Every structure is written in C-alpha cells, then in structure tokens.
Amino acid sequence: xxxxxxxxxxxxVSLLASTALAEIKVGFIGSLSSDTGLSTLRGAEMAIEDLxxxxxxxxxxxxLVTADTGEDVTEGVKxxxxxxxxxxxxxxxxxxxxxxxxxxxxxxxxxxIPTLDTxxxxxxxxxxxxxxxxxxxxxxxxxxxDEALATLYINFGADVLKxxxxxxxxxxxxxxxxxxxxxxxxxxxxLGPVAGIQVKDIITYDINTVDFGPIxxxxxxxxxxxxxxxxxxxxxxxxxxxxxxQVPMPMTGVNVAALGMEYWEDTGGAGxxxxxxxxxxxxxxxxxxxxxxxxxxxxAKYATRPSxxxxxxxxxxxxxxxxxxxxxxxxxxxDVKAWNAAMLKQDLKLEKDGKLWLRYGFWxxxxxxxxxxRTYPQNALFDLSAPYDDAQPSMVVIQWKEDGxxxxxxxxxxxxxxxxxxxxxxx
Length: 427
Fold this sequence. Notes:
Largest sheet: 5 strands, parallel
Low-confidence stretches: 1-21
Strand order of the largest sheet: 2-1-3-4-5
Radius of gyration: 23 Å
CATH topology of the largest domain: Rossmann fold
Order of helices and strands: HEHEHEHEHEHEHEHEHEHEHHHEEEEEE
Mean pLDDT: 92
Number of helices: 13
CATH class of the largest domain: Alpha Beta
CATH superfamily of the largest domain: Response regulator
Shape: globular
Oligomer: single chain
Number of domains: 2
CATH architecture of the largest domain: 3-Layer(aba) Sandwich
C-alpha cells in the first residue's frame, strides 16, 4: 500500500513536472505607460489568448510576464535581467525604443533568449546580425530598419517634396538620441544626392526641450524651404508649438506622437499640417480584412489608450504567433539555431481586394535588397519600389489635416489623401 502510494505520488510529480516543462513563458519588455509599449503588450496578449484558446503550444499553455523599462536605458537592462534570471522566460517580445534595446542587447547576447523587437528600427542592430550571425541568432526585428524607412522617404522627397511642392532645401531638427542620429545621418547622406534637396543645416536638440521658439527661429534663419524633424521622445511638444507659433515653414519627417489616434487630443488640436513617415499599418492606412478584424477585437477588449494600436501592436500580434510556430517546428526555444532557422521561414501574406497588402516575413542571410544593394538578415521584409508586388513598402507618409483627420499621402499606391500646406503658410 505504501509502495503503491509512493508510486502514485511519483507518477503525479512526474506528470506535474511534464506539465511545467510544457508551459511556455513569454516576457514582455517595454514601457507599461506609453502608447508604444502598450501597443506591443496588448498585441502580445491577444496573440497568446488566440493560441491558448486553440490548445497552446507543444501541448502546453503560454503565460505572459512583464518588465517595465519606463523608456529608460538603465531600467531596460534591469528589466531584461529580471525576465532572464528571475522569471526564466523562454521568449521575449520587445516594445522598446531604440536606445533601450541597445542597452539590453548585450544581455540578450549573453543569455541567448529568442527575442523579437517590434518597435526598434536601428540599422546598427541588423549590422550586428550581419557581422556575427551566431551571437545574434536569437534576435529578430519585425519592423523595417531605419535605413529602409529613410530610403523610401528619399523617394517621397523626390516625388512629392521636390516634384510636386517645389521644395529644394531643408533644415533638419533632430532629437539627441540613437534614433535621431541614425535617421539624420541617413537623410543627410541621401536627400541631396538622390532627391536633389540641399541640407542647409542640422539642429540637434535635447529630448527635454520645452521651448522650441529659438530652435524654430534658427531653422527659419537657415533659409531652407522646409523642416525635417526627427522626434520619438516628447514629440507632442514640438508639434503643438509648431502650430501655435505658426512657423512659416512646412514641417515633415518622423514624429512618433503623430502615429497614434490620441495625437490630436494630446496636442490640444494643434497638430494640423504635421506629416510623418510611419511603418505600416499606420493610422489613416486602409486595412485589409485580417488587420481590420484585429483592430475590431482590440477595441472591444481595451477601453483605454491607445484606442488603435500603433504599427508595433500588429507586429507583436503576428510576430508572437510566428515565434511560437517556429518553436513548435524547432521543438522549443532551447536550440536557438533551430528556432532561428524556423523563424526565418515564417511568412504571412495578407491581401486586400486581391492584391498583396501586408507581409510579415523576414530577409534571409545573404539575400540582397536590390535598391540599396545590401542585406538585412532577420529584419522584416519590405519593398522599396513600386508596384510593391513582393512586400509592402517599408513605410508610408501620413498627414494630419487641420480638421483633425489623417490620411496616407505616399506611396501613391497606398495613398488616400494628398499632402497639403498648413493654412498659415502661403506659397
């Protein structure tokens, strides 16, 4: 009897151990109080709910734990360490800004935990993949790198800013961040030679700047035809002051605040005329049926901001499902090289009206992108030239109108609006 009891207990313990081993633990790293971070977190939550409802992964359910970075580099490193050492997660999904991802990247290389970045776009990280594919095997970026974003924006410069608007010179206002530096360098190197637009001056500002009056005065004094801004931290401030001061120069570029539906409210309605590049799908972007359904379910589930997920919310939703599918093929996450090979094969194609509209896949090692002539291994697939038959463009340009509406103005194949000058600027 005692022997039978012990055997029964042993069997129970064994079954419990098997169940524990079958459980997959996902860690979210990012800001828990920003629209960017919450977009990734909620996309991941919805993907996990779908997967668990369908039976889970490898016979087990998926659980989610979170680590808040507060968009701070030091806190980001601590957050990654917490997920790796305390929670012992199998997979990490990131909604971090570039500087924070760069902070925890050495920890990822050390722990070798498969990690998906859904917002960070710094091309330097993809360069690391090229240089050392073994140590960077756990890392995937399912947003087009900033080089791809800037490259397509150069086409916008040639096709719209110069050809349609007649602008021939620019002054760059860029925040002092890794993201700001990367975009500024890419635009400076290519805007003139490719689009035929001269860079008159580059003005770098601190992310804590609250008075942009002197900066706008300096921009005006440059004699440039328009302003190119690069702002991912506190961009509401530069946006609202641009409108309230009625700066007599058009302003375009990269404004992360303008990527969310709350932008209009956050600027007190002082956001009209601002245009910005955005990875897809963006607000104002016509959605395919699958993406539209995702948004409908998102809005039914979440009552607080962001009311519509940023592009990285879509990236998280699809990317987490792809990571889990790769894990099933690889037999889990422990064999990072096997998981990497399976992840590289993931390819989701979404159509709208019979046309390829969005594609969630990855560049392969050694695969050359024809426009730039370089490789982007483990980076999201993108297309840099029309007609976009192989993948969606790396970005679209959206513009907020003075009536509070927003639409896509470029590329023309995805446009549902036209670029307009703010009413206070006269030709």
